[in-house]
Design brief:
Length: about 150
Amino acid sequence: MDRYMQAAVDEALIGLKEGGIPIGSVIVHDGKIIGRGHNRRIQKGSTVLHGEMDALENAGRLHASIYRECVLYTTLSPCPMCSGAILLYKIPRIIIGENRTFLGAEEHLKASGVKLEVINDPSCIAIMTGFIQARPELWNEDIGIP
């Protein structure tokens, strides 16, 4: 696992320790992490703070041209909401830790020209599998299942 995906995993583990959903993300520009975050819906009582959204928020207000040169690393396949933000800011490449426990809007991203690399990392799979087994009600809430 490269250092950027490890940083995303570290974010996911922070979220888990905080009592939240263990999904982490980092945004990389020219080899430097410019935004990092983790799912904080539970911690902040938020409807939108998924890992990717938190990383974008923490990157701050940047010129659109910066995002067009970034790579987003996320421990889990991006949901439709996060995929929309990725498309809005024209982030061209995403490295996905795993898509076995949840398959997000990958086809939509690909159809829109985003390059995806799914690595199906065993640690990312284990983190989500363990969480879904332990807290299915939180997981279902996070992905919009009643």
